[in-house]
Design brief:
Length: about 1000
């Protein structure tokens, strides 16, 4: 028995097999690869025993196929057109569900696609002849990345989704039937496969149900249905899939063994399927060759830069070369052979050092060895066939990146095709293993010897070369620190129950130390108020006040406040038991409101003095005078956005559904909230048409409201009570939208696709294209805010950059069309749970922004940004929250004017004016290891005061609002407004005491 084999509980020898389906670009996925007979047995079972929550009892029992398909259709990430196809074409819906299940349990990762004309080098095309039997399944099947997004959307309908098998059973025991949807259950079972195997399966591992195994496909399907019924429906009563003769209801029904001859009779491809696979392989090869030739012709004609994105072009050429090698039956292709042999032999050598590697894994990597067995072991037969075609290769380790190249352009966007959602979770183990090997072998600081792969793969005569080479690779793997290659499946994330470990590199931009000439030009332009005194003199504000007290000219409010910036650590003025997602002042500064994740909106009187005895309402505590709390209509995960009407009487809020609600801000007004339905249907505010709204803004006249969400930009006419504009604006979520000015004709949308688009409503009737596009961010955009003059806009990006845009300098639509498929960001970067690694490019090559501002962190949530108030500062400062607990305020020239450490805030009950002295002991509101996140910051329209909204770690407890003032405000004797009024009155009195000039008209 090989050392890589192990024994099942019945003593049967089981050889590990790779879970993830891998193959060269263009190769068909045959029946044996996808386990076609198992899928058919699973989805053809007619036992109607599963509860469908959308149906009414007693007609709410369905079979597994219906249950799973309905779960996909209900996903908040499923497009409306795809949902219609699944409902109207049962065959397409069945095929879609079967492939989604393979993604669900991890057999298909997000690098696979099923459309042959795909150009991106980040995906690999594979036909599925046994499933793609008609044009609908061949032309309209999602790629695997999009399927993964749809599956994630299924779990998003549960708040929060179950993360362990025990939690599913606990929900079932509490009376929740079904305990979760089948997508969540399969994610959970896969992540905890060891526990599931130990508790319920004696003849095989849980993951063996989905792999080529000497067990009947029908028996494996029945064993999975038994498990699903036990966890979703009833864990104690009779199970319709249980063997009547079973002694223990805890274990799955028996799994009879198959002989090799019986296995060969299952999953047999028909001649038509084989021919279709060959046909599509030939088509793909010709397509890749044609694409490569077209690019070469364009480069020769000067239409494209031949040096642009060389890694992507290299990857495309590699795929074309592999395809040609497959066509000619030359499986000893350098790339394919190197990858195959390297992984197989490396695993076998590691198996020989099993005990040693176990200790390393536990002490250094913290990974289970069983995970390595599951993902790195070769399939029997495939291993022998590939090892017979070995060719000796000698190369330097520095050259290995040429074979593991994967980052390339993503041209896979066609406006005639359905939208592509880029919120993808593409973290698969084999891809990260390639990255780990590549990074481990790239060490530029030392002279690295060459590795003789002939000795590595076949072994040297005395074994010394093999041992030395293995020791070299293993040591570099350990030094690389890429734990993602050996991630523990049991590590649960905050919002999703599958594991995704953060990258080990943490990069942060430094703020600009010297003023940028473009920023200075903006300061001197007059577009942002008077020229700052900082450009003419370094005189501090206090000296300005003292000198002007003796002046005959009245002290103007703007003159004093333009250089006054909030700078105190601040004091907590409100605390909540759930995350606070937004907080803003009313336009007249009479009240401040917040939106909390528990679907409550709180309104506070900012004119009233601070309360000596805090207002307490459950987990809500505040020292501000409480006007009212509004109970929002519960919807998705949280209240995503809110905005006040121009007269400050209505508060619009969005809840991740197609409906925006309007609530009154008047303290005694308890009238019913008005609903604005942006979706295709008006009978509910669910996910029926996938128009989940993330952002909403009133127009300047209060007659319309713009909203953005799931790739859409919409306008609601409040007078006509209907949605007047509906645009498919982006190929990813619209995180933020606004009006450019008070005119109401220019709309702005910002999306996860990294683009800010400008729309002119006057031209939408003739062409539903944007008037221009603001190109410059390399990652998704979290927020966009206008200056309000129709010219300047700022945006916050996940590329850790705040950008200032001039709409007069936006790129035309033709330029956007050229770069729409380019990939300038970090592949697979997930801002929600990763640190930001050092990017390949710090700036977008087609950046049309006026200025960039850096130094803050835009991670974990959609961090917001804004201009400072025009009334007091001329909008000459830009400010933003940050995921490191800081508040950043920049001058227009790019320098950091103020950086407030939100973690040093005084606790609730301390007078906000007392900014001197020691800081009290921090409260227990923060979670160890998780810095505070400042999500939203509001600048008082009339005073140098900030209000910051922050929350801590995944415990999601005790989020807070803090008040930050200008430290000099207390020295001026109260509020800035009162001080200015007092000084103006004194100036008038001094002028009255001055004698009139002589009658002859002069003093001389």
């Amino acid at each position: 028995m090989e050392k890589s084999d192990y024994k099942g509980q019945d003593g049967l020898v089981i050889t590990p097999r790779p879970l993830i389906i891998k193959g060269n670009d263009g190769e068909p996925l045959l029946r044996k690869t996808i386990q076609y007979d198992f899928l058919q047995a699973l989805f053809s079972d007619t036992t109607q025993c599963f509860t469908e929550p959308t149906l009414q009892a007693p007609n709410n029992k369905v079979n597994f196929s219906t249950l799973y398909r309905k779960a996909l259709i209900a996903s908040n990430k499923m497009t409306g057109s795809q949902r219609i196809k699944m409902e109207q074409f049962p065959e397409f819906g069945l095929v879609m569900a079967q492939v989604c299940l393979l993604v669900n349990i991890g057999r298909i990762n997000t690098t696979l696609a099923f459309y042959p004309d795909m150009r991106t080098a980040l995906r690999y095309y594979h036909s599925i002849p046994s499933l793609q039997r008609d044009e609908t399944t061949r032309q309209h099947m999602y790629d695997a990345a999009r399927m993964k997004t749809v599956l994630k959307g299924c779990t998003g309908n549960e708040s929060p989704p179950a993360s362990t098998p025990a939690e599913i059973l606990s929900r079932q025991a509490s009376g929740t039937i079904p305990a979760c949807n089948p997508v969540t259950a399969l994610f959970t079972f896969t992540a905890h496969s060891t526990t599931i195997t130990k508790d319920h399966y004696r003849e095989c591992e849980f993951m063996d149900l989905f792999l080529p195994t000497p067990i009947s496909s029908v028996a494996r399907a029945r064993a999975l249905l038994w498990l699903l019924y036990r966890y979703l429906e009833d864990s104690k009563g009779p199970n319709p899939f249980q063997d009547p003769a079973a002694k223990s209801p805890k274990y799955a029904p028996p799994l009879p063994r198959f002989s090799m001859e019986e296995m060969e009779q299952e999953n047999v491809d028909s001649p038509e399927e084989i021919e279709y696979g060959r046909k599509m392989l030939q088509y793909r090869i010709e397509f890749l060759n044609k694409t490569e030739a077209e690019y070469a012709q364009d480069a020769a004609k000067g239409k494209v830069d031949p040096n642009a994105n060389p890694r992507g072009q290299k990857a495309m050429k590699k795929k074309a070369a592999i395809g040609r090698a497959v066509q000619e039956d030359r499986s000893s292709s350098v790339v394919s052979q190197f990858y195959t042999h390297f992984v197989i032999r490396l695993y076998q050598r590691l198996s020989l050092l099993h005990n040693f590697f176990c200790n390393i894994a536990k002490l250094v990597l913290g990974c289970p060895v069983q995970r390595l067995h599951s993902y790195l072991s070769p399939i029997a037969g495939w291993q022998n066939a590939e090892l017979g075609r070995h060719t000796s290769i000698i190369m330097n380790p520095h050259e290995l990146d040429d074979y593991f190249e994967g980052d390339a352009e993503d041209d896979d966007y066609d406006p005639d095709q359905e939208e592509i959602d880029e919120d993808e979770d593409e973290m698969d183990i084999e891809a990260d293993f390639e990255d780990a090997v590549e990074e481990a072998l790239e060490d530029e600081d030392e002279e690295m010897p060459s590795i003789d792969l002939s000795e590595l793969l076949n072994g040297g005569a005395d074994g010394s070369s093999e041992s030395d080479t293995l020791r070299l690779i293993l040591s570099r793997l350990l030094r690389s620190g890429r734990r993602a290659a050996f991630a523990d499946e049991d590590e649960d994330e905050e919002d999703e129950h599958w594991s995704r470990l953060p990258r080990n590199r943490d990069f942060q931009y430094s703020p600009r130390s010297e003023p940028h000439p473009d920023g200075i030009a903006l300061q001197r332009s007059g577009d942002f108020g008077a020229v700052p005194k900082a450009l003419m003199t370094k005189q501090p504000v206090q000296r300005t006040v003292s000198s002007r007290k003796r002046s005959l000219v009245p002290l103007l409010r703007d003159e004093l406040s333009q250089d006054v910036v909030p700078n105190s650590a601040g004091t907590v003025v409100a605390r909540y038991g759930s995350n606070v997602y937004a907080g803003q002042f009313s336009t007249d500064a009479s009240f401040f409101y917040t939106c909390v994740q528990d679907f409550r909106l709180h309104i506070y009187n900012t004119k009233a003095p601070t309360l000596q005895n805090p207002h307490v309402d459950g987990d809500h505590v505040s020292t501000m005078k409480h006007n009212k709390s509004i109970r929002a209509v519960p919807g998705g995960w949280t209240i995503t956005d809110s905005h006040l009407s121009p007269d400050n009487t209505l508060l619009a809020y969005a809840i991740m559904s197609p409906t925006v609600f309007l609530a009154s801000t008047v303290p005694d007004d308890e009238s019913e909230q008005r609903s604005l339905t942006f979706g295709q249907t008006r009978h509910d505010y669910g996910w029926n048409d996938r128009a989940g709204i993330w952002s909403c803004r009133f127009s300047a006249d209060g007659k319309e409201l713009v909203a953005g969400g799931s790739g859409k930009l919409m306008v609601y006419d409040l007078i006509a009570d209907r949605c007047s504009v509906r645009l498919q604006a982006h190929r990813a979520d619209v995180n933020s939208c606004c009006w450019a000015d008070a005119g109401g004709n220019v709309l702005i949308s910002a999306s996860d696709d990294s683009f800010v688009k400008v729309w002119d409503r006057r031209s939408l009737g003739t062409s539903p294209k944007p008037a221009g596009v603001l190109i410059g961010h390399t990652e998704g955009i979290t927020y966009v805010a206008p200056k309000g003059d129709g010219r300047y806009v700022i945006s916050n990006g996940k590329d850790q950059t705040l950008k200032l845009w001039d709409l007069r300098k936006m790129a035309p639509f033709s330029k956007f069309w050229e770069v729409r498929g380019e990939e300038y960001g970090i592949p697979d970067f997930d801002y929600r749970r990763e640190t930001y690694p050092k990017p390949i490019r710090e700036d977008h090559p087609h950046d049309c922004s006026v200025m960039s501002y850096r130094g803050h962190r835009v991670l974990r949530t959609l961090i917001r940004c804004n201009f400072s108030p025009a009334e007091t500062t001329g909008s000459r400062y830009l400010y933003s929250g940050s995921s490191d607990g800081m508040i950043h305020i920049w001058a227009l020239d790019g320098t950091l004017v103020q950086k407030i450490d939100r973690k040093k805030v005084h606790d609730i009950g301390i007078d906000p004016s007392e900014t001197e002295g020691p800081i009290p002991n921090p409260s227990t509101r923060r979670t160890a290891g998780y810095p505070l996140v400042v999500r939203d910051v509001a600048w008082h329209p009339q005073e140098p005061v900030l209000m910051s909204c922050s929350w801590a770690g995944p415990a999601r407890r005790n989020s807070e609002v803090a008040k930050h003032e200008w430290k000099g405000l207390n020295k001026l004797g109260g509020r800035l407004e009162d001080f200015v009024e007092r000084e103006q009155q004194e100036t008038k009195e001094r002028q009255a005491r001055i004698p009139a000039p002589p009658s002859h008209g002069g003093w001389y």
